[in-house]
Amino acid sequence: MNKKFVLGIYDDEDVLLQAIENVRAAGTKIYDVFSPYPVHGIDDVLGIKRSRLPIAAFFLGLTGMAFALWMQIWMLGFDWPMIIGGKPHISLPAFIPVTFELTVLFAAHGMVITFLIVQKLKPSTRVPVFDKRSTDDKFVMAIEVKDGVTDLSALNNLLRTNGAIEVNQKEVLK
Q: Which of 146, 148, 154, 162 allows an S-S link to 19, with CB 3.0 to 4.6 Å?
């Protein structure tokens, strides 16, 4: 399925941030903004909510900790109890290194997997490149064009008055 986009090309991040505010204030929905490097404050200007990935990381780490403690208590306390150096079978201070390692392992791997699932990323995902200069030195604001709804001349004028050095149309296979 092909989708049409209008691309506003910018060469300054401050102009881009101001343009995003003005375009959103005009009631135009921005599909996405592409930049060659992270731009401080762009998430707030675009209205993107904070990620809930830290909450997932906490619960994944908690799961890793619970699994590590359960595993060690079961193995050393019930399944194969051995007295080593006169220590009790269930000795929590001795379990700290393994518990820490499994907490970190579960949290790290779980966050990567969670991120990939939430973003619907998989090895076969084809990511469209709107403008190759967005990986080098330009900022690209993409606005989806809906047939019969979007006024292209007004949108072109809006982007140009807000500092776009170039306005292009592109059809992308989604």
A: 162
For 114-148, the pLDDT digits (tens) are 999 998 888 877 777 888 888 889 999 999 998 87
With a cut of 70, say whether residue 174 has pLDDT above it: no
77: Cα within 13 Å, side-chain hemisphere: 12
Give the residue-averaged pLDDT of 4-11.
93
Between CA 92 and CA 101, with CA 97 as vertex, the angle to 5 degrees is: 125
Cβ(59)–Cβ(103) below 8 Å:
no
Write a three-state SS string for the chain: CEEEEEEEEECCHHHHHHHHHHHHHCCCCCCEEECCCCCCCHHHHHCCCCCCHHHHHHHHHHHHHHHHHHHHHHHHHHHCCCCCCCCCCCCHHHHHHHHHHHHHHHHHHHHHHHHHHHCCCCCCCCCCCCCHHHHCCCEEEEEEECCCCCCHHHHHHHHHHCCCCEEEEEEEEC
